[in-house]
Amino acid sequence: MKRFLVLWMMCLPFLVNAQVKPQIIDGVVAKVDNHYILRSDLEQMYLQYQADNPKNAPSKCQCLNSLIINKVMLAKAEIDSVTVEDRNVDSELEGRMDQMIQMYGSEKNIVEQFSKSIEQLKAELRTDVKNNLLVGEMQRKITSEVKITPSEVRRFFNSFPKDSLPYFPSEVQVGHIVRLAKVTRDEKDKLRERLGDFKKRVLAGEDFGKLASTYSEDIGSAQNGGLYVNVKRGTMVPEFEGAVYRLKPGEISEPVESEHGLHLIKLEDMKGEIYSARHILLRPEYNRLDLTEPTHFLDSLRSKLVADSARFEKMAKEYSEDKATADVGGWIQDPESRSVHLAMDESMEPGLYFTLDSMKVGTFSQVMPYRTNDGKTGVRILYYKAKFPPHFANLTDDYLKLQRMALNRKKNTAVDKWFKKTKSEVFIQVRDPNLKTECADVISAYEQQ
């Protein structure tokens, strides 16, 4: 049976609630070791697929199978002591919250919708985000040796009957130049003053860890008193590590500025290239960031680009502050294939979709607000370079997409083989009697009675 391995699924119930609100009587439908699959998990996954692509949506049994495989990978990650870094969890969590902000329009709207503070929502979502990253890490371990050759891509393409070739929607090539908001001097001074006060309190006898737990805006480390343990040199941002290596164990730094905000750092221990340190992170308030200079800068740059669009790639490389796109000439890429051809459909970020829908090919947008994937506030201009009509797949125009499809099939096969070998190491039980009957052919392959 075809496996639908949806590795972001553990975060999906939180996100899907914003779009699909079925009346579901919740309960546990399956258990994998100490992990549970809820009826709402299954129903929301199934409904989301139905909403996105009803013709090719997986069955409910296939969705259940995918959820069970993900839970087995999570259980095996715990057995094998697979870990993910707190800073990666924090970054992913901020990305999830940014998606919510884009979906609801503002943090205020989210709070009203869920009747919970942003911090409460982050705390509830954090475990799911961490589990999702653990599953992803397990899948990378399982499929790390899987490669695809050009001949395999060609065989994959030729395996489709001529009347059943994949059909690709309209695609666009679009780039952007981003300038980030600047923190005002007054705002930086206020943060430095607060951190300086924390330092005085610690020197007067207060516990650094308790202050970090109470005040630090690095949610991951704050839960552990601001502590990062056994950090390898080169892991943290340069400004942070520069301060660390100027300290002796027990010493506290002056406020240190990095791209994440301002830090107060206490070195706990250092052994060669490995250190442990606590920090208190304060971030500037987004509504106090200054967009005046970045907006004026892009206004001026836009005038030059309108006069000569051929300079776009050069200017993007030189002036864009979006690290993810600047190095490739400003072009926004598909996150999986790294192609600069983006599907003009529901998979596109809504703000980008509706902006392009009102633009003409070959034109530049006005300067508009923008939030980067890692949560930074800024402005950007878009360049709508080209649009490609919908078409049936061919090897010349769609090689990268076909390569990704063939590689994913091969990876799914590798995961399937791993699952068959691993399933006996964990306890799997489907509890819902209706699903046991409906999905008997799937369940019988692995359930332990």
Automatic annotation (TrEMBL):
Keywords: Isomerase, Rotamase, Signal. It comes from the Bacteria. The lineage of its organism: Bacteria, Pseudomonadati, Bacteroidota, Cytophagia, Cytophagales. Coiled coil: none annotated. Residues 169-269, 272-383 form the PpiC domain. PROSITE patterns: PPIC_PPIASE_2. This is Periplasmic chaperone for outer membrane proteins SurA. One of its GO terms (molecular function) is peptidyl-prolyl cis-trans isomerase activity. Residues 1-18 form the signal peptide. InterPro entries: OMP_Chaperone_SurA, PPIase_dom_sf, PPIase_PpiC, Trigger_fact/SurA_dom_sf.
